[in-house]
Amino acid sequence: MKGLKERWKVESNFQLTIIFIVFAITGSASAWISKPVCIWLGILKEDFGFWHTPVRLLIVLPLYQILLVIIGFLFGQFKFFWAFEKKMLQKMGLGFLFKKEEN
C-alpha cells in the first residue's frame, strides 16, 4: 500500500480507501448503465451476434471515463481523478485534448 500511496501521491490510507471505493462503484455503474445505453442505441445481441460484446466494451470505455470523474467528484477526490484521467487519455494517444501545463 505504501508504494501505491507514493505512486499516486496519496497522503492517507483513508484517501486510498476512498479511491478504491470510487473505482469499484465506477466499474459496476458503467457496466450496469451500458446495457440500457446499448438498447437505446439499438445495439442488440440478436443483431450483432459475436460483435455485441466488443461493441458494448467500446461504449463502456468512454462511459467509464466520464463516470470516474463524476463519482470521484462526489467523493471529494476530483483533483486525483482528473489528473488520473488526463494521464490515462495521454497514454491512449488523446493527450492533445488538454493544454500543456507549463512548469
Distance between the termini: 29 Å
Number of helical stretches of at least 4 residues: 5
Q: Biggest β-sheet: count, sense, barrel? A: none
Helix fraction bin: over 70%
Q: Give the total of beta strands.
A: 0
* Alpha-beta content class: mainly alpha
Which of globular, elongated, flat, extended, rod-shaped describes the shape? elongated
Instruction: Note the beta-strand portion.
Output: under 5%
* Rg result: 16 Å
Low-confidence stretches: none
Taken in chain order, the helices and strands follow as HHHHH
Determine the mean pLDDT. Answer: 86
Transmembrane segments: 12-34, 54-82
Pfam families: DUF6787 (PF20584)
Domain DUF6787: 18-96
Keywords: Membrane, Transmembrane, Transmembrane helix
Q: How would you explain this protein's 3D organization?
A:
The structure is a single chain. This protein is an all-alpha fold and 103 residues long. It is 75% helix and 0% strand. The protein contains 5 helices and no strands. Helix 2 crosses helix 4 and helix 4 runs antiparallel to helix 5. The mean pLDDT is 86. This is DUF6787 family protein. InterPro entries: DUF6787. Keywords: Membrane, Transmembrane, Transmembrane helix.
List keywords for this structure.
single chain; mainly alpha; 103 residues
